[in-house]
Amino acid sequence: MKKDQSLFNQLEKLLTEQRNPASEEIDLADSRQIVSIINSEDKKVAHSVETRLDEIASAIDTIVSKLKTGGRLLYFGAGTSGRLGVLDASECPPTFGTKPETVQGFIAGGKEAMFVAQEGAEDSEEEGRKEIMNAGVTSNDIVVGLAASGRTPYVHGAVKAAAEIGAPTIFVTTVSADQVDLKVDHMIDIPVGPEVIMGSTRMKSATAQKMVLNMFTTGAMILLGKVYQNVMVDLQLTNKKLEERAKRIVMLLAKLSYDEASSYLEKADYHVKTALLMALGDLNQKQAVDELKKHNGFIRRALINLQ
Predict the structure, then answer these.
(1) CA proximity to 14, closest of 145, 179, 155, 147
(2) DSSP output for 235-280
(3) Which of 21, 150, 185, 274 has the most CB atoms around its CB within 10 Å?
(4) Tens digits of residue pLDDT in 200-242
(5) How far apart are CA 302 and CA 307, in angstroms?
(6) How many CB atoms lie within 10 A of CB 95?
(7) Contact, 252 vs 231, CB < 8 A?
(8) CATH of domain 10-223
(9) CATH C-level class of 231-306
(10) Could you report the per-residue pLDDT of 41-76, keeping only the tens digit for each?
(11) Dihedral of CA 50/154/106/83: which sign?
(12) What SS3 class is residue 234?
């Protein structure tokens, strides 16, 4: 009973568990008024994220330093937070050509929790610790804890275990840092305030976390040379849509026809960066591959060197 009372007291103080004055009469609103209230609250999220850009950038630099030496970016969360981590991780291979193991998402309750809520799974620090051990985490990996409330035991267990191993740790939460009892290398607290529906952290809290995770992986991949200008050029051509997107990218950046872009991709064994460098630098496949290796995969650096 004392444990339950302690949890009750913790929740009562959390920003995400407070009532939002702006939506106290939302049950009387019509659909247009409802979406207006939600939209007004959502507008506040980006401004809240803006207050933490320095720390987010610092976290990205840590992520890049580890990925460069073969480390992994690993997300740990429960419920909505966990699903967001899995989502961000799953989108990296087709978007940026990363190996599936490079960015991974772990959710309390396992794969089943992605589709059906496993509410009790988040209550054990030991389960988080086990997840770290089972994943073979080393000091070369980066562990990101995701918890809107800042207190999820599963996430705390994972982060603490990672820190003991010597892995850099990042924590993303939507309550203020003074409400989080956890030591990490990068604390990214984005207090978005009370939700439109009290305690429903699938709303503003989830939006804030999604924005931060987008910054983590997009920022890291840009710094790893997987973007040329503002175009993703290291995508994997795993389906017809991505094949056609690759042709469009080569057409757009090298100013080629559809048939010419298709030809360059074929000669480049359907590696977009190689095809682009062949076209832009007037190189054959081997020369393009060598230049990319020499410049760590950065197309722009290779082109500057060829001038």
Answers:
(1) 179
(2) ----SHHHHHHHHHHHHHHHT--HHHHHHHHHHTTT-HHHHHHHHH
(3) 150
(4) 999 999 999 999 999 999 999 999 999 999 999 998 888 898 8
(5) 9
(6) 17
(7) yes
(8) 3.40.50.10490
(9) mainly alpha
(10) 999 999 999 999 999 999 999 999 999 999 999 999
(11) negative
(12) coil
The tokens describing 61, both together, are 């630099």
Q: At what angle do helices 53-67 and 31-50 cross, to 10 degrees?
A: 70
Residues of the chain with CATH 1.10.8.1080: 231-306
Q: Which position has the token pair 């004392």?
A: 2
In angstroms, rounded to a whole number, what is the distance separating the alpha carbons of residues 59 and 117?
A: 30
The span from the CA of 229 to the CA of 233, in Å, is: 9
| pLDDT-wise least confident of 116-120, 200-204, 259-263 | 116-120
- Taking the CA atoms of the chain, what radius of gyration do you get in angstroms? 22
127 CB neighbour count, 10 Å cutoff = 18
3-state DSSP assignment of residue 10? helix
Between the CA of residue 65 and those of 59, 62, 69, 87, 90, what are the distances in Å?
10, 5, 7, 23, 21
CATH 3.40.50.10490 in the chain, residues? 10-223
Residues with a catalytic annotation lie at 91, 122
